Amino acid sequence: MSERRPVAPNDLKAFWMPYTANRQFKSAPRMLVAAEGMHYTTADGRQILDGTAGLWCCNAGHKRPKIVKAIQQQAEELDYAPAFQMGHPKAFELANRLTELAPAPFEHAFFTNSGSEAVETALKIALAYHRAKGEGQRFRLVGRERGYHGVNFGGISVGGIVPNRRMFGTLLTGVDHLRHTHLPEQNAFTRGQPEHGAELADELERIAQLHGPETIAAVIVEPMAGSTGVLLPPKGYLQRLREICDRHGILLIFDEVITGFGRLGAPFAADYFDVMPDMIVCAKGLTNGVIPMGAVLATAAIHDAFMTGPEHMIELFHGYTYSGNPIASAAGLATLETYADEGLLTRGAEIGSYWEDALHGLRGLPHVVDIRNMGLIGAVELAPIAGAPTQRAFSAFLKAYEKGILIRTTGDIIAMSPPLIIDKDQIDQLVGTLAEVLQEID
Ligand SMILES: Cc1ncc(COP(=O)(O)O)c(C=O)c1O
User: Fold this and answer.
1) Class at the top of the CATH hierarchy for domain 22-63+344-440
2) Which of 47, 171, 270, 331 pairs with 32 at a CA distance of 20 to 30 A?
3) Which GO molecular function, any one, fits this protein according to its record (predicted)?
4) Residue 33 — pLDDT band, cuts 50, 70, 90?
């Protein structure tokens, strides 16, 4: 046997952390050891108010009893069942609950283990759907600048965040991008949806004419672009995208990995904006972030296009070992129940105006160049330090953590998306602490 290397259990070197400044973290670790309700506990025993619902995923807050119990029971009862050619009741039950919760056109759910996988799944379904209908020439995919669709090859190809793409070669071919919708000169400090920019959707018509509309399979957008720093769709923008897709037989995919499960004050962004895509990609809040799980919601028209040929044949050559995993399914069911019990999927609409007023109270503080909000999501954009982009927001993040709040930063944008159980005092604490931070950083 080849040599082995002893490593102390608390050594930080081995774990190559995702989307993290590894050297900075390991020089001054921010270690979380417990969580309950709206708070994390740090290794040194401090309480941190969760201003980000973990990573936009713990919508019901932490350590929710129904979810904890469901996972424990499921692990005892049925730990794993093969996902291919076999089934177990909870995956079917979750698909039923999920499609019941979704707008009526969505009758089918395909389970994955993450948002990234759900994106890949939706893109593949789009291509295969057209082929099944005899339109195999529709091979092009359209995304949008500044879009985030996870980290796998399809997702980074249609995505538009430059550092996520530039290190990774040629990506998928046949992909084009719409312009992003950030128009700070016209829309800065807008409350809710910005007035200006609906015409940016017409880019899709230009792209369609450039390549031939009959070659385009699908357009994928986040209805509200979260990871890039909370860019809200201009009024009328999503409606126009829908119209152009309809005109040319192009599928519209909403990536609702962040907006799904109540973030905007409605179950899905499709409800909030009253625009129906052909597929919805979701994850995160599906299990309250507790167990990895994602899903693609599809209409009957899409699903049924595959249900042809001999009945013993697999209709879609796609799936994951853990698609609809029993423990994830149990967590999903308990999560949806918790949301329903506490009315959380519409809570953002109730407390949203308090949140909006609190956030916009930061206007005029040092470095603040824009504030954006909707439902229980908000962003504060800072002017970058000349020659050192991202440094100012990162300092804000570190100082905020020191002062007992968890925020997130992308570039020089601070994003917040607290659990949907947040109360008014906690909103005051979150925004009040951020105000102190903004006054203290360089
Ligand atoms: C809109 C969107 N799509 C996809 C993803 C990827 O999800 P995951 O990190 O679960 O793969 C994310 C994650 O933040 C997201 O915000």
Assistant:
1) alpha beta
2) 331
3) pyridoxal phosphate binding
4) very high
